[in-house]
Amino acid sequence: MTSALISAADLSDHLGETGLKIVDASWHLDGRDARADFAEGHIPGAVFLDLDAVSDPDSPLPHTLPSPASFAASAGVLGLSDRDRIVVYDTAGLFSAARVWWVLKIMGARDVRVLDGGLPSWTALGLPLEEGVPGRPSFEVFSPRFDAAAVADLDQVSAALGGETQVVDARGAARFRGETAEPRPGVRSGHMPGALNLPYAALLNPDGTMKRGEALHAAFTDAGIDLDRPVITTCGSGVTAAILTLGLHELGRPSSLYDGSWSEWGSHPDTVVLTG
Prior knowledge:
Elements: E1 5-6, H1 8-14, E2 20-24, H2 35-40, E3 47-48, H3 68-77, E4 85-89, H4 96-107, E5 111-115, H5 118-124, E6 151-152, H6 154-160, E7 166-169, H7 173-177, E8 196-197, H8 213-221, E9 231-234, H9 241-250, E10 256-258, H10 261-265
Parallel strand pairs: 1-5, 2-3, 2-4, 4-5, 6-10, 7-8, 7-9, 9-10
Helix pairs in contact: 4-9
């Protein structure tokens, strides 16, 4: 299995190579525009991908998957081809980059990785940054090949709960237990019956890089997850669930991701929500 992670030092060694594309996929839960951070300083040659702008414009849910054709058009405008070597990062360390890695991967990108530790790992090594907003890149053709098996919907999650497939929630423990209000209006607090809780931060080291090997394995098993059984990952809106999906990939375990996540489940009139 090829790791989906790349270190800042390794990326620096390949900077400027033909076919290497770098994507700043920063996104903030509090609604701040990450474009300002990008303009202030980004990895040389990077393009900025707005997670919301490449999502389904007709969905009432936040940043859900667009059609493959729509995503391919957006990727092409950013100069991304499905044949490129693509490295995705964010300014937090490891947060929204995992979601964009997952989207690119299931849409057909052949070689896409996440910068381990994100921009902080890059700057910690004293590596260079570019300022300003670069010009529009040359259009590339992104030929989508959608992997539907990697995406779970509400019906599939409902059927999985309490069965062989484990539903694993990446939200913090207080949100999972319903002790704090959800950040989105109209979404109830709590969790799905039978879901397991593994806050995404448990997969990360203090420097924002992902745990490896036995430490990563233990993060899952300590949360009661059987890595020999199927897993559906979920979270608030499908962003941090992708961190769990990335961690499972690093352990050689396939999974699917509930795209609607708690934004859908917690606001749906017919779903059961538990607290405690």
